[in-house]
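User: Protein folding is very new to me. Would you mind checking the protein record under this note? It all follows right here:
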Amino acid sequence: MPFFSRLQSRYNLMLWLFFVLTILSIPAAVMTGSIEIKAGQIYHIILAELTGSEVDKNTVPAAINSIIWQLRLPRALMACITGAGLAIAGLTLQSVTRNSLADPHLLGISSGAVLGAVMVTLHTGEFLGEFTLPIASFSGSLLAIIIIAFITQSRQMHSASQLLMCGVALSFVLMSVANLALFMGDNRASHQVVFWMLGGLGLSRWSHLMLPLIICLAGFVFLRLQARTINAMLIGDETALSLGINVSRLRLQLFVISALITSILVANTGAIGFVGLMIPHIARFFVGGDLRRLLPISAVFGALFLLWIDVLSRTLLAPMELPIGIITGFIGGLFFIGLLMRGAR
């Protein structure tokens, strides 16, 4: 018992350490950029907004106030939400498929969400108001999951490698359809769609934060409550069935949650790949495979990772901004190759 108590204490210490590091990284990320911003200005603006008082223009000029409150702070918060959400979605897919290489980007879920966003932006318009884009992205993600499930079940493709190859092939097909829709759309609006193709946080505003936060938080709570059940399913379907678990229903719920989180994030940030692949693997190295510990630490790692990747995207080619999906794709591709080489050995 003392051993498990020490193990839990170490886990709690590490979780809180990285959580505090993430909180402290937010003002550091806001300060970093082509325009110099002081930490005192950030805290002064936040305090003024929370208390409803006016910002002292002698302390914080109007231009700096606008940059901090309207641009960089919501962008930093969106980076944290997106990183945590993609890590949760990737962990969910790896759990439901029992495939450590599963990722929303590799299984075509992100490509389906991009296709939905492109169709709405260039062809159908916002016929459901502000909810059109999230619904279209979710429909595209759900379509990808349905196609994968149909192919794997009808062809009896149950191995991890077959599922992965099916997902990669579907991702190329859906992205090709999205490119066709882009080619046939209005050329004047096509440049806006590149945002969903490459991924980025440049359009993040306060009004965009609430829905992704609610969806990701709801998914996290559900997965945490079902952590013991999912752990049993990871051992095997027979073991889970012997414990009275409805495996088919649980697997469907996990697929839908992963699709919902991925689609709402893609609708706001575009396709940012490989975060859901890398972060759960890094988290497993520290805490093992128990989902009760793996889920919170993955969310914190994902938030911290994408926050600083966004800083890198803003500063690497300053004053130009590099799409964040290019950086995560490069790092994630190398990480994926490393996993394949380790598996071969």
In short: Residues 76-344 form a domain with the ABC transporter involved in vitamin B12 uptake, BtuC fold (CATH 1.10.3470.10). The longest helix spans residues 62-97.
